[in-house]
Amino acid sequence: MLALGIGVNAAVFTITKAALFSGFPLVERNDRILYITSSRGCCVSYPDFEDWRAQATSFTGMALVHGAQRILSDQKGFPESYDATEITADTFTLVGQKPILGRDFTSSDEIPGAAPVVILSYSFWQRRYGKDAGVLGQTVRINGAPTTVIGIMPEGFSFPQKLDLWVPLVPTPDVRRRDARDTWFVFGRVRDGVSIASATAEMETIGKRLERAYPATNRGFLPHVRNFREFFIFENEDVIYASMWGAVGFLLLIACANLANLLLARAMERSREIAVRIALGAGRWRIIRQLLLESLLLSTVGAIAGWWIAKWCVSAYTLADRGPGRSSWRILDYAMDDRVLGYLIVIAIGTTFLFGLAPALRLSKLDVNTALKEGGRSAAAGGRRTHLSNMLVIAEVALAVVLLAGAGVMTRSFLNIYNADLGVDTDNILTVAVDLPATRYPSDASRVTFYDRLTARLHTIAGVESIALAARLPANGSRRLPYELAGAPSVDGQRRPSLSAVTVGPGYFRTLGAAVRSGREFTDADRGSAVPVVIVNEQFASTHWPGQNALEQRLRLFAGESPQEWLTVVGVVSNIVQDDRTRQTFGPVIYLPYRQTPETSMNVVARTRVDAQSLGATFRREIQTVDADLPIFGPFTLTERLQANYWSSGLYGALFLIVAAMALLLASVGLYAVIAHSVSLRGREMGVRMAIGATSSDIRRLVMMQGMRPLGIGLAIGLIASMAVNRVLASQLIQVSPADPATLMVVSGALVAAATLGCLIPARRATRVDPLVALRVE
What we know:
The protein is built from 22 helices and 21 strands. The chain is an alpha+beta fold and about 775 residues long. It folds into 3 domains: about 1-25 and about 235-375, no CATH class; about 40-220, no CATH class; about 430-640, no CATH class. The strands form 3 sheets. The protein has a 6-stranded mixed β-barrel. The protein has a 6-stranded mixed β-barrel with strand order 13-14-19-16-18-17.
């Protein structure tokens, strides 16, 4: 019990430390690094970065990061799209690392027109090149450009996220435009002796200065300074970690209550021994010290075993956190370092007092005369010990109720996500993400031609029922675009509403099993030269044209402040979840024909007559036939792609459920141990009762009442406490109340059933007592 309680506590401490406090592995002094973005989001312009770096005195240096995918091809295998980022030359110097092979970037690598170079991560070097040092100096093709490999970073290092490649950020004329903002952020290392608050205040001052100097481009774009936890940890994610920590803390308390009860029972058997020690001159403190040292030995063995349990739990968590078909972008430091060891030692010592102090105090107050005269059994078996034992059982049950209720609402929340109606039929759908390089497909016409060739070829695969294209899959977000309706009053650009837009191809709704409520789907005739058209979902139609026919209505989108052509509604389709990853909301969505608005990145969606996974290799082969140098993401089934959205919710729900199951088991075992030991001590009493006429039913009822009384009290306390504790989880719950009645009823039923079984076994044993034997015991 101790190994389990201490082990899971150390494991959760390790996970929480990594996510909330440690920062990136192999990065020096993470706590002194600040991450700076714009107050309007993630975007920072290169000129702003240069001004910040030149004017800020609170930092030893600053670097700029721009995340991007890169297509790498060589003779080692198919071209693939890899996680890459563009960085300024001093990035690795600021984080305190340098390549283990080769060299770092230099300022000359950032000069426009310089020979392209790349640094590889250790994991990528190992995965693709088998740790062949000969790759240094070799030329690979990145986005079609010959690029020289100049370095390999250390094993385990990845900054500022999980990456395969780093390339130098080249400030081209387009990049140097002050209004050019993309997925960029700045990080800087604060000087020693300068507080984080001072550095933040200085950046705010510089931002206001630039806002006055460049009002046309910088109005509203002030620096937003955050530490690691604020920048990289999702909103409300710290609630999950705190709740996990609380859950395993409760589990440890239950284990300690169990052990305290077991040691109280053991104390009855040792009362004569302790009485002899006291009679020979041992003082009260000496008795307490002896018993606490014995408890400490027990804790030490439990802590040693718990260390290995913790290591296994952390390894299992890091493996599970990747999820099926999920690219984990975050690299965290899950090392079990000195802080974890110190935490483990502290809780081992703390548990010694938690479960060892009560028995020690009880035995130190022993009535020596009575214990020596009666052999100790009657001396230690009084009502005071029974009262303390029942109090511990009540505490165990109450804690178990809180854990089970928390796990129950988390599980119901996950099931609400998992079972939600997406508005599509996900069975037998295969998806492949394709990203066309701009160098080889520079025009809209070239992209349309490629996708036409690709879909025509995939249609010929045996087992394929239909093929369609979509820029975004269901429940995977969309573009947000400003718009206005025909006939609506004009509004200022700052107050213009935006909508969700998804570019799709002909047959998209038929492939996904969605219904066309009125009008039509897109066809091959909806080309760039044709009348611009749009399809809206039912939610959009009912929101903007309630009680009217949406067909032939018009709306237009905006590119910046410039209005585009008017779009005519040609169809209304059933609602499909698009922007809500919890899969609960059907928001207003419009669909644009890909031939009129072709995008470089599209998803091929295929409905198959056979198992979709069985066609994965065939799809990859056919795509490579159309373009041998084209990287793809997949193939994956639509179910696998959707699982990535709710995998973390399922993982956390499963963790809470596992901890709650442990708590239920420990509470049941604890109740059983108390009742079983009590029955063994009351054998003479049971014999007397049966000798004067008590039936087996009377004895069974007596024992059951003894066990169910503390259960009922603990259940009532736990239910009240769970309603308060579950409110902490409210931000993580989907369509379920923190005080969900169904969950509380199931939790109560599970505990009552487990406790009944725990009481029934000793009760049946009590009915088998032979009165003659019991009366001769003493």
